[in-house]
# Entry
Amino acid sequence: MEKKWTCDEDILCGVNEPKDKENLTDLEKKHTPVIEAPGAVKKDEPFDVTIEVGKFLAHPNEPGHFIEWIELYCGDTFLARVSLSGGASHPKTTIPVTLSHAHGPLKAWGKCNIHGLWEGIKDITVE
# Structure
């Protein structure tokens, strides 16, 4: 009988996140987006969100292996997308954001052209 794959066994299926945030594997260190932003912000006041893929262990940045794009969400609401190219850009971006309310944590998705989609999360409140 042929083995059936689940998303737990296939990094190209679904959104990947670290299994143990205290003990990241090298693959997780290279691919998990790290979000730097305040934990609390004032309603309707701009602030910066910096997202970096490969902060804990450098991700390759060459034509055959690179981060294609980084997206930012608040909960399930799309905020921004930055497209990148292999060999020409470092997978780090700063995005100015203004929130009128928080409807979930900040979520960053980074897409590796070989290892799929990866997610980083940071809690935020709007005062």
Observations:
- The domain at 15-126 is CATH 2.60.40.730 (Immunoglobulin-like).
- The chain has a mean pLDDT of 90.
